[in-house]
Amino acid sequence: MAESITITDNRTGESFEIPIENGVVSSHEWQKHLPGIWFYDPGLMSTAMAESSITYLDGDQGILRYRGYPIEQLAEESTYLEVSYLLLHGELPNKEQYDKWVNDITHHTFIHENVRKRFLEGFHYDAHPMGILVSAVAALSTFYSDAKNIFDPASRDKQIVRLIAKMPTLAAAAYRFSVGMPFVYPDNSLSFPANFLSMMWKIAEPRYEADPRLVRAMDVLFILHADHEQNCSTTAMRVVGSAHADPYSAAAAATAALYGPRHGGANEAVIKMLTEIGSLDNVSDFVKSVKEGHGRLQGFGHRVYKNYDPRAKIVKRTAYEVFEVTGKNPLLDIALKLEEVALSDDYFISRRLYPNVDFYSGIIYQAMGFPVDMFPVLFAIPRISGWLAHWNELLEEDAKIVRPRQCYVGSDVRDYVPMEKREFES
Ligand code: CMC
After folding, report:
1. Active site includes 358?
2. What CATH class does 266-367 carry?
3. Cα–Cα distance between 401 and 163 in angstroms, integer?
């Protein structure tokens, strides 16, 4: 039997039935019976804004899958570029498709010289790299005027390749600029993650080759951050994309959303918190102060996961692999102790607060030498694949422009009062 709910409008006594499909009720069905009655849903906590076949997430069970493939298997066996292909095309590539995809991305990593010379170098010397990235992604739309042809599949594919390929170049350029180091051109003989590390760290050596274990760790972190269904930045991408803006402008909006400390900035907050705690002896007092309402345990809790974030498990394991190369980040012991104390405490258990992806990722980034300002930038590099997959999906289904309703609680109509007649409370 098909599932449904029955609603009775107590104003009229009329009852009607609304079908439940795939766990959702359609607002169109609702509007048929109750025109003009809106859902008040701040934070869109109970609203499914899109039908999507990209990422499956079950927060209660701690399950994350891209196009049906468990994140654990992808992190173990795949590469970020293969995952980006999967997110965008819906299927894993065969050898020929993969080689072409890697070749296409590799040959679009360069940025226009004017982006670097005229645009990036115009920023103040201590500009935040994420602020630079937001602006640089937006600026790309002015370099690729064909990007406006969003209903031309060939043009769309071209912008997708450009954006995925240029994110690491822009990210590394933003970093190098912010520390006064010269720009490093992409090295097309390197893999995607190895090229990024080369653009970050190369100094005077003819060729920079990062330790393969760090290259792999970078790739795994890129895989884990590639998509996460309808999160804040993806929603920003969809909202701006629904107005039919070009993909660079939409991706700039998504990058801006990711800049926020509640979203892409949480791993930076974790490092600050662990540094402030400073020693194992202070962990219990810190947890006590969080329980008393003095701040939050950063890197814990999630709007959707009410279980251990499956990405956090993989990041934790990756941390040990990175530390084999870099030496252990001294903050790790504090993090482990914090997790142990929190996971056995009723405050966190009853609220179903578990470590999220950010709890351990900052510790790895720090051990690899990235400054905290770069953490959200590292998140943005792979998330572009997810944003673009959602943007594609939105255009393919010819989605409506996002234009929500509001619950107006302001003044009723009133007459304009000339300034000299206005009375103010002192
Ligand atoms: N530490 C202590 N208490 C917490 C925490 C925390 N990290 N997170 C939630 N709570 C408590 C909160 O005080 C509330 O308690 P009560 O019911 O007594 O008022 C309850 O748990 C529910 O919290 P909420 O704020 O209603 O939950 P939310 O779904 O709106 O917030 C969150 C989700 C991620 C913003 C929040 O858990 C948080 O601020 N966590 C710390 C920041 C963080 O790690 N963010 C990264 C998210 S994952 C990466 C990403 O998606 O970008």
Report:
1. yes
2. mainly alpha
3. 23
